[in-house]
Each structure stands twice: as structure tokens, then as C-alpha cells.
Amino acid sequence: MKPDTATTGRPRLAAIDKRLMRAFEDFVVESPVRSFGVQALVTRAGTTRDAFYRRYASIGHFFVEVALNRYSLNPTQDTGSLAGDLLVIQREQVQMYTDPVAKGLLLLILDASADQPVTANAFASRFLKPRRDATVTVLDRAVSRGEIVAVSDIEYTLDHISGSFLLRASMPGTQPIDEAFAQKTVLSVLKDLGVDDPYADLDAAVSLLGNE
């Protein structure tokens, strides 16, 4: 993980940082979390508010660091086909959003982002953007292979790939995030990008990567 400006000179995951993150993860897994205070966190981690604020500018900053520490910034793999590459991305999203920590963490980040523009900007630039940039590389490879033409609206396509996962993860009453959903989203994106035979391409990708 990259060093943070608030922790210059400190190892990113020193013992106190590890205890703070472990305490947070335990809190989130044990019970639904809608609000979260620094005092409860440092008490459980066996440290102090001063130690927390030497490392993190705010609780929102801490949430972003948890995401950066726990989830991949480049969830991609060159499988030789667009369908395979997309399936790798979507399966990683299944793993991320079904992780026991993810739901509580996502809601807390969204809540902190609404009140703290710095948190919103950090989450967008340090977590979301690298993941989206990695997906752009996947799409560029597909263009180079001749599988698709250059994508005319890249931001829409990136939203198409990730937006439905975010919706299901953050909204109540939605259907499960699972392998079937991952494959459906891949098929939808392939169709939208004008792949010649999206069904055959998806079948080939599943055969290559295995049906989880």
C-alpha cells in the first residue's frame, strides 16, 4: 500500500494500524453499523485517540484506508479475451461485495463522503479511479485484439461494469451478488459493446476459468 500523507515516516501497517483495522473489522462483522465513533474504535483496539489522529485525519480517512488495505486496486487479468477479462473483474467484485466487512464499510464510506468532501475525493481518487483505470486497460486490450471497436463512452461502460454491483451492495431488498449475477453482467456488457457472439464468448470464458 502506498504511504499516506498523514503517516509520512511511519510504516503504513504498524502494529497500532493493524489493531485499529482488526477492531473495525470485528465491529462490522459482529453487528450492523450505521455510525461509528473514534472512541469506540480506539478502546477496542487498545490504543488512544491521539494515536488514531496521528495516523488518520478523520474517521472517513480511516475508512478509505481500510478499503485500500483490504481490496485490490487492480482486479484484472489478461485471459486472452474480453469475456474472460470481464469475468475476472466481476468475480472479484462478487468476492469484494460479499466479504463480511464490505457492506458495513461501504455504507460508512458513503455516509462519511456525504459530510466530508475530503473523504469523497480520497475514495474516488485513491480507490475507485485505480480500479476504473485498470478496467480501461482491459477494454483497450479488447480493441487491440479486434474484439470490439474503440469505446465511444468509456465512463458509461465503466459504470455499466460496476454500477449494478454497487446498487445491490448498498440498497436493501436487492437480489444476491453471486456467480450468476457476475455472468449476467458480463453478458450485458459484451452485448452493449457489440461483440459478435457474446453468448459463445461467455461460455468460452467460463470454460477457461471454471464455473465458480
From TrEMBL:
Pfam families: TetR_C_11
Stretches assigned to the Tetracyclin repressor-like C-terminal domain: 77-186
Coiled coil (UniProt feature): none
Keyword list, A-Z: Transcription, Transcription regulation
Gene3D superfamilies xref list: Tetracycline Repressor, domain 2 (1.10.357.10)
Record carries keyword Transcription regulation: yes
SUPFAM superfamilies, A to Z: Homeodomain-like, Tetracyclin repressor-like, C-terminal domain
Protein name according to UniProt: TetR-like C-terminal domain-containing protein
Native source species: Jonesiaceae bacterium BS-20
